Amino acid sequence: MTVSREVTTLSDPTLLEKVDKLRDLNIGQHVPLPQLVVAGDQSSGKSSLLESLTGIPFPKDQTLCTRHATQITSRRSINDRVDIRIIPGPHASEEHRKEVEGFQMHMPSGLKFREQFEEILKKANEKMGLRTDVSTGKGAVFSEDVLKIELQGPHEDYLTIIDVPGIFRTTTQGTTKDDMVIVRDLVKKYIKDDRTVILAVLPSNVDIATQEILELAEDYDKNGERTLGVLTKPDLVLEQSAQAAVCDLVKGKKRPLTLGYFVVRNRGASGSSKEQPELDQIFRQQPWIDLPQDRVGIPALREQLMSLLVEITRREFPKLLQDVSNQIKDCKRELQSLGPPRQDEREQRVYLSRIAEIFQDRARAALAADYNADPVFDKDELRLITHVVNITGVFSADFQLGAHSRHFEKSSVASDTDEDSDLEEPPRVESMIDNLRVLLEKARVDDVALGERAELDGIIVPLPPHKIPMPREDFSAWINNVYLKSRGLDLGTFNANFVATAFAEQSRKWGDMTKIYMSRVIITLHRFIAAALRSICSEEQTRSHLWSAILESLVERYKTAMAQASLLIEVEQRKKPYTLNKQFAEALSKARGYRVTELLRPKARKDIKQYGDTQYMVNLNDIAKVAEGKSNVEQLQEEIHDILQAYYSLALDRYIDNIFQLAVDYCLLHGPSSPLNVFTQDWVINLEAEQLERIAGETKSSKKCRTKLAKKIVDLTDALKILKT
């Protein structure tokens, strides 16, 4: 921190006066203000230093030591005048605020004020409710209130200093260990802000390593850029080694600070009658005379402090203006999030209806993937339809790859969809599916919280799910075994019920995989509804009551969707396999032709015709032999395989579409009974007055927060006017 050396007494005091007015408004509790804070251990010479700087005879008796912050403001004026008042602490009750604000004193003479200061201090302490007799337990020992003393006169300098209670490490009569903590916290509150210059008062006759104020200062000013060391009591340093140690500090050879150190001599606790020039004669003696003269004595320190205060005020003023403006915006935004005041039924219904309207707007945007509609969609959990599409993509891929119990044999049905394998995906498709799985992991869909599990108990299956077994390779052996165990008196045919039994076994995993899929969609939708309400209604109690009011309806609609999925599973697995899709006959015909073709292929020979056409020729006798070469059981097993495969392929595609269209899209997303349609303006209109009051009625904490924000906005707006005037 660099300091201008211009003559500050000739500087325009307007900025300093503006900051003092902000301090009167207690703006410092909201926005850090440029200030000089005097802090140090008890018995460090702090009171004597303040008297030297301000001319105010602060009491040096331990029983009258500083028990609250004191703001001393001096301003140059034609006439002498002293104004004394108490600024209530930031956490003062309304009753205490009125009590202390009634304390105001005005004196036409600074001399008279100084003569009566000790008595004035006692009255101020009484007004703050502080203990006046340390031997009794009546009253507090320390206070957050601030005693403001404003000195005006032709000989005053432009300076504002804040004094805080001295730090102590051992209790005395009337103080406790709790009081030690209170004082430390009070000191920390004043020195923590970056716009505060810390005047660390250090007795020269004590090792500075033992001074707690330096430790506290380092906690908040790690680089020592805004801490100025003031070394007192040099007259008590008698040993040459101790004097040399003090000189090394001032010269910057030990424990350097950017603002450096000053050595000053003040009147002692005994009340020496010596004037300041006489006290400063010590600095014309060895070893002090070798120190830079702008670093010794009260006049040099006072000039430096005035320069510092002007410098930090000028430097920080634009930032201060911006901070106040930003705070006003933040407060207005927070106040707006509380909604309008809602004392009666009409206000409550309007308030809740507005929340419902915004919720429906965001639900529509989330379903349409219109994420530019509102900045809240930057949050991943609100991108509802994207998550549902990704979950559905993984579900469809998993179904295609492994929903069947056993792999079918290769046939024309498989060849029509994939030349290489009946169930393997091309590399590009596999890569896309892997990407979808990664997205689901990032979205933490399967990480279901305890609260979510409790709310959705009995609806969703456990997530993450158990591993679904992959299809087996023993299809032919399985068909043969089942057929031999279940055939009847069928002449060259098989019982139609056998296909139904085989299909039910082949689709056995459909139910579990579908419930996992539905559970993932439901938990995603459940989270969206909760997150959307959080983004609209910031008041926790209102949101909690609203959630409790709609939860039962949400759960019922989730159950309806699950029931719809269960119905589709039952329809596919419990009824006789049947389809009107003409592709079934085509697929079955191709499968039969494929088998004959594969049997005749080894016996076929090429017959190259004119123009390069190639045909295959097969002997009719070979065809007859192929037909004769299979047993009735073998032919029936192949027929069962081809019928089952042709039907399974069609049923699979139909089922995936139906689950999404009828269970997910209709029941959960876009249908009239979607959970997204529970919380609507119509729902709010139909609420009974008692339930409306329970949900939308303003809580005590909300009222308190509203009042606090409103007052803060008024104070900050007044502060902004002061800064811009």
Could you explain the architecture of this structure?
The chain is an alpha/beta fold. The protein has 2 domains: about 10-330 and about 720-725, Rossmann fold (3-Layer(aba) Sandwich), CATH 3.40.50.300; about 345-695, no CATH class. Helix content is about 55%, strand content about 10%. It has 24 helices and 11 strands. A 9-stranded mixed β-sheet has the order 4-3-5-2-6-1-7-8-9, sandwiched between helices. It has a two-stranded antiparallel ribbon with strand order 10-11. A hairpin with a 5-residue loop joins β10 (about 605-610) and β11. α10 crosses α23 (about 690-695), α11 (about 385-400) runs antiparallel to α17 (about 510-535) and α16 crosses α21. The chain is elongated, with a radius of gyration of 43 Å. It starts with 13 loop residues before the first helix and ends with a helix.
Keywords:
single chain; about 725 residues; alpha/beta; Rossmann fold; 2 domains; two-stranded antiparallel ribbon; 24 helices; elongated
pLDDT averaged residue by residue: 84
Low-confidence stretches: 1-11, 417-424
Envelope shape: elongated
Counting DSSP H or I runs of 4 or more residues, the number of helices is 24
Query: If strands are numbered along the chain, what order do they take across the biggest sheet?
Result: 4-3-5-2-6-1-7-8-9
Kindly name the structural category: alpha/beta
Amount of helix? 40-55%
